[in-house]
Amino acid sequence: MPATVAQLLARQDLGLRLLTPSGTAELDARIHWAHSSDLEDPTPFLAPGQVLLITGAPDDVEPYVSRLVAHGIAGLGFGTEVVRAGTPDALVDACTRHGLPLFEVPYRTPFIAIARFVAERVAADTYARNTWALRTSRAISLAALRPDALGAVLAELARQIDRPVALVGADGELDRAYPPGGVSAQDRAAITAAAEPLLRARRRAAGTAGGGAGGGAGAGDDDADDGASASATFALQTLGAAGRLRGVLAVGSAGLDQAAQQVVTGVVALAGLALEQSRATDAARTRLRTAVWRALLAGDRALAETVAEPVLGALPSGPVRVAVLGGTAIASAADVLESRPGLFFARDGHDLVVLEEDAAPSGLPELAARFDLRGGISAAGPLTELASALAQASAARDRADADRPLRGFDDIAGGGMLALLDTPDARAVATAAIAPLGSADADLPRVLLVWLDHNGVYDVAARELGMHRHTLRTRVAEAERILGVDLGSFAARADLYAALRAAHA
Fold first, then answer.
1. Distance of alpha carbon 172 from its chain centroid, rounded?
2. Beta-ladder partners of 53
3. What is the pTM assigned to this prediction?
4. Average pLDDT for 466-489
5. Tens digit of pLDDT for each residue in 15-51?
6. Helix axes 444-453, 490-503, angle to 10 degrees
7. How far is Cα 439 from Cα 448, in angstroms, rounded to an integer?
8. Contact 118, 33 (CB under 8 A)
9. Contact between 383 and 320 (Cβ < 8 Å)
10. How many Cα atoms occupy the beta-carbon half-sphere of 405 within 13 Å?
11. What is the pLDDT of residue 219?
12. Given this model, what pLDDT does residue 112 score?
């Protein structure tokens, strides 16, 4: 590791003498470099963790020392016999008050000797960490050859960096964590909450989770899962290709140096590769699901169950609902559905078809919102009526919009036949049909709708409209002339009523 102030003072050949009380000074602070400057304010040219070497001090040492401490300077060395003999008492007092280690550098010790000692320790530490990174990367690569490659890689990473590692699946749930018991319940909740927006965005991205003062739970922390341990800080990285993320990797990041971060970067690539390699299996399962779905539609339930049982599990039984979903992210939605029992799903062309038992709680609204899907859900029915259920779901999907991305056929059927007019096509036709009325009199469509709502009874409709019944008769006759129809017939009235309703739906 890099040198500390205590190790620097212990070098007898340098002849350094500590001037501040050892109980006050932070002698275990790591030194990242040594720099000399006699500027009144050298902090713009210094980095935290450095030792500053000077031969003179400003007259007002209090703000000088205060700036050094605030900047994170690890220690201050005063060279004697260059500008003056001995170290100023005011500087000693100020460093003592602020807890900054101050040591005296004799004239015979050049500043370059101190810098060389620090540089050699930094170089040795860098070499040791690089050697560790190579050795660790090799161990992780060997772990990738085991049967459960992904699990073995993540477990080895957690062991090597002595930090907790967790994997969130494409469904947003915590899939696994290493070491066992190494991630507290509090951290599990923080990780899944932070992973959710990354998965929802469907882009490669990074983030953080947690951030309590306690740091990460290390390997062997047996009681870390009791929820009482301090929250750790986790670095999050998505896995998989943009548009179809396979999960999110969470790594305890507190105190990781550059070498450890390089190892983590390598594991991100390995984990992503392991997940991507499952695509061939996923593609085969997708084709199998489609075949089972088509067998069910064809009425060959026995064949569908025989094919599905060994690989996909049992098909739903009893009354079922069919959902038809569409959108640009149905592949990602299918990845999430893989982890949900009690339903069957399949790709049918550009659509995702979901078959679930009527009694099972439906998570489809959340799925549609998460992946910006639109679709429809059929009424409950037997498996023998799948074709009818599919038609219902498709009809409901045609009425989905941005405000109601997932429509249920039950709701549409409950609205009667006129509810079927709530489609863009119906509104377009209706608007064109009644356009001549609005061109002649902007209020005429409203008048006609009130009249038809009252079953064509002039007296009642006229009172609601605030006009005389003869005036209303004149307005209706004007509409007949404009449209070229006889509104005395039921068919003409029904057609006009449907058009007025659809245009204002």
1. 8
2. 36, 77
3. 0.50
4. 89
5. 999 998 876 557 878 888 899 998 888 999 999 989 9
6. 120
7. 14
8. yes
9. yes
10. 15
11. 34
12. 93
